């Protein structure tokens, strides 16, 4: 803390003093300072939020105390920032909002964090209980605790200053222990101004010890999993974002390489081992899912992203599944799990490595050869598409340039959202280091882009390249002002094809534009210029390459409007099957 900031902090404490009955000066503290001290005691020194009633002064005081407070333009984006901060740091990201509407804006991000198993705490100011419970019409009156409970892992309300330490400790432990998730902490306005003895306040604070203790797998579970693996003729490892969150990178790499098995990384697990690793089957996804006979999932769930573990994508041959997860209820959620291994990923992987010993037999050569041949064939087929010079650009031409830039800058963090912009980027751009690819997660939710970009560079100090569909950018686009205000090294590339999926749809019923069409030729780069950042329009791959390299070299906030063929892209990206079609239209 600077001398000036410390002086302000000391002055604030001095004003909270009174003489007791004996005439002695009694040092006091209040809810504002106790919340700040409780956060700092537990190493939570960054807050993402939007100021307003009743938390405006709290944000000011937190900033004065040395906590970094980043003010956003919308609470939902601040919440997405806090959620991804939790993923990157394994500590709960903190989102601070005002009451009622602000709380509701943050609630989407809280539910997103819980669904994706990101540790996050949404702290919201709220109306007074006496008025809310009698529904007497307070300012922004709402029973926020009741609304939050179904959408997060835990929810607590703190009514008394002496309970702040315990309340925050419970929220931290709930957010990071077991399967991580979102926690709601309700802070009524009166709590901030409550006064108590300073020494008693200090004693009431709690430093959380071993918030996420290791959960050791049962030896029998390890033996069973290894027995199933030994029987495999065509084994496969699937790495999910839970494996990336675990930060057991060396152990996972050792397990994959010792096993000799092909591995398939889910999108946010890309880079745990480089996508160019000889065992990576990312470019042969369909083949390995369809033809494998034993599948070991590490921090991955058999949800819709993996077709629930059944159906035509998984082929007709019977499969045995091994699943490593900290949550026992996850087992058998869609298909029978032959070998459930319950525990934290680091402990489970370490136990498997030990159990494999020094003479583990690699999978049959014909399986490895078949997977690698399919991978090489698919890579060769794609290669010419990545070097075309079509004008306007298609997705492959634009991504061919960005693929090379990421290869040359493997420490940069890639944030990615959209429909086609997401699908093509995931398949084209290789990642080389863990936790460098951040995207829409389990829900496939749009709008995470600018919040994640801000938190990624704030938490890691690394530059960010955000690849956005023009539709996805619209959900959080005003946060480019936040990027400029804090002078963050973020380069945003908008794939602008004039619409959602495509910009070529026609409304045949009236003069209104089709529902999926935007203003043609929109200049998103001018938005960044308006806030003092760098705006560039790129119409060719060479222009795009030059603009992105300049942005990454300079570290200046930059937005590049990459003009994409309006006809490029497909309906709903690669999940068009989830978009129902009219039976009458089919006829």
Approximately how much helix is present in the residues? 40-55%
Low-pLDDT parts are: 1-15
CATH architectural designation of the largest domain: 3-Layer(aba) Sandwich
Rg over CA atoms, rounded to whole Å, is: 26 Å
Instruction: Give me the count of strands.
Output: 20
Q: Span from first to last CA?
A: 70 Å
Instruction: Report the structural category.
Output: alpha/beta
* Overall morphology: globular
* CATH level 4 superfamily of the largest domain: Thiamin diphosphate (ThDP)-binding fold, Pyr/PP domains
Mean pLDDT across residues: 94
How many helices? 24
Can you offer a commentary on this structure?
With 587 residues, the protein is α/β, with parallel strands linked by helices. The chain has three domains: 3-204, Rossmann fold (3-Layer(aba) Sandwich); 219-373, Rossmann fold, CATH 3.40.50.1220; 388-570, Rossmann fold (3-Layer(aba) Sandwich). 40% of the residues lie in helices and 17% in strands. It has a six-stranded parallel β-sheet with strand order 4-3-5-6-8-7, sandwiched between helices. It has a six-stranded parallel β-sheet with strand order 16-15-17-18-20-19, sandwiched between helices.
